[in-house]
Design brief:
Order of helices and strands: HHHHHHHHEHHEEEHEHEEEEEHEHHH
Shape: elongated
Low-confidence stretches: 162-166, 172-185, 434-443
Largest sheet: 6 strands, mixed
Oligomer: single chain
Distance between the termini: 66 Å
Strand content: 5-15%
Structural class: alpha+beta
Number of strands: 11
Number of helices: 16
Length: 469
């Protein structure tokens, strides 16, 4: 018999409704609440609130709301607060009941501005410490990489802020500054600094043949389980090689472990970074940059004669030392010999003779190339693809990493710290669930083995009785 349509009348009162019973025991938010301590923020932000006035929302609840914003990949705080009354699991996670009034979305943005980046650094480190306690971080082999983030601004509306640039150079932002006497065209050509009126901290950067107005997130990823151990946010025009030292140092400070091997791409392969790694006694798995066209001789094709301080080209001709500038020594072949060489097309296309420049610290490049075997280098570079690049791909697909939610360098650093913390929490959940499954399976195997042992014992005793009778 087909049932009739139901017309449920809304009740004025609901008895026996409990969010605690409605949220399943294996719900991810219930496990997150047990693993992560959100209450630490109360003592950290206590000095930022006054004694008089209205009572604010619990800072721990605000931090949980920011966590949900990234964890659920919602577009804005407004969207989060619109869905909060509709989600019983979110209400339970934040400590609200069904009939409790939820705060306005502006509470989150005001708290973010008031707290600053330091509070979110503390939250990231708290999550990281739980990952370290769970054995997910080794700290010895790390992968360093960066990724572009589009700013919440239009790159087609950039402006050359002449007054802003001059004030920054003089260091007196509050004092009137005289405009330059040259034309605007000349000024733009000499000072290519352009900023967005919407997001003045964003800068133009180029990666993979694409120009992006925005920021960069420089991450350190541990090799063991892919845990993010450090995150540094910079404008998009900052070169990757300039951030490596700070990234390694922040990783060591956060984990308390000394780095033994650093893996990165060619963007980090400069002499200063090799020198730094050798000083801290860490191995380098970073290929160095080579600006050599296909079919031409590279720097390695020329042999250095240390005794006579000169180079020998592939054709057997000599390149003698002609001068020094800073830490660069220049070597050049005779033009009369170089112009008649049969291998000239593979060496140089200019009318002048072939010239080589040798850095006094070039020995660090040779040291970096010989740190690891070819097999080990290839293995680590392959792991980098799914450890470092996979971390950014997961952040982009599940947490809106590629688009800035807020404007300003500090707010972008907060966004990147929250995303990295959420990713670490997800890995921590998978690890703990795996442990629970392993324990259950082990207990089941133990119970089966016990039953089999009892069965064998009973069979043995029964056989003994039969033999005696």
């Amino acid at each position: 018999m087909m049932g009739r349509s139901q017309k449920t009348e809304p009740k004025l009162f609901y008895h026996g409704v409990s969010l605690e019973r409605r949220v399943p025991a294996d719900h991810p938010l219930r496990r997150i609440g047990k693993l992560i301590d959100f209450t630490f923020v109360r003592c950290r932000v206590e000095e930022l609130y006054g004694v008089n006035g209205n009572v604010s929302v619990d800072p721990a609840v605000i931090l949980k709301l920011m966590f949900l914003l990234i964890y659920e990949d919602l577009k804005s705080e407004r969207a989060l607060m619109e869905q909060l009354p509709l989600r019983m699991d979110w209400l339970w996670f934040c400590g609200y009941d069904l009939d409790d009034a939820t705060p306005n979305h502006s509470v989150i943005s005001k708290a973010r501005r008031r707290w600053g980046q330091e509070i979110f650094d503390g939250f990231f480190n708290n999550v990281l410490s739980r990952c370290i306690e769970a054995g997910l971080v080794d700290g010895k082999t790390i992968h360093i990489d960066s990724s572009m983030i589009d700013a919440d601004a239009d790159k087609d509306k950039l402006q050359a802020h002449v007054r802003l640039v001059v004030q920054e150079l003089n260091g007196r932002l509050d004092e009137p500054v005289e405009e330059p006497q040259e034309t605007e065209t000349d000024w733009r050509r000499k000072h290519p600094v352009v900023v967005s009126p919407t997001d003045p901290d964003a800068r133009l950067g180029r990666k993979n043949s694409q120009t992006v107005l925005g920021y960069k997130d420089h991450r350190v990823i541990d090799d063991k389980c892919g845990i993010v151990t450090a995150s540094i946010t910079t404008p998009a025009n900052i070169n990757d090689s300039l951030v490596m030292k700070d990234a390694v140092q922040e990783h060591q400070d956060n984990t308390g472990n000394r780095v033994k091997t650093v893996v990165a791409d060619k963007g980090y392969g400069v002499i200063d970074n090799y020198k730094y790694l050798k000083e801290i006694k860490a191995l380098s798995c970073i290929p160095h940059k080579e600006h050599v066209k296909e079919g031409r001789f590279s720097y390695e094709d020329f042999c250095y004669d240390k005794k006579n301080d000169r180079y020998v080209c592939p054709a057997g001709q000599l390149l003698n030392r002609i001068g020094d500038a800073r830490q660069i020594t220049t070597y050049r072949c005779s033009l009369s010999i170089c112009s008649q060489c049969q291998l000239r097309d593979k060496c140089t296309t200019g009318e002048a003779a072939r010239t080589l420049e040798r850095n006094s610290d070039a020995r660090y490049i040779q040291w970096a190339d010989r740190c690891l075997s070819r097999y080990e280098r290839r293995r680590l570079m392959n792991r980098r693809r799914y450890k470092a690049e996979g971390s950014f791909a997961d952040a982009a697909n599940n947490h809106g990493f590629k688009q800035a939610r807020w404007r300003g360098l500090v707010k972008m650093a907060i966004q990147n710290l929250l995303i990295a913390a959420v990713q670490n929490v997800r890995k921590l959940l998978r690890h703990t669930s795996g442990n629970l499954i392993d324990l259950a399976a082990c207990a089941a195997r133990t119970a089966v083995q016990t039953l089999l042992s009892l069965q064998n014992l009973l069979i043995t005793r029964w056989n003994c009785r039969l033999s005696l009778s």
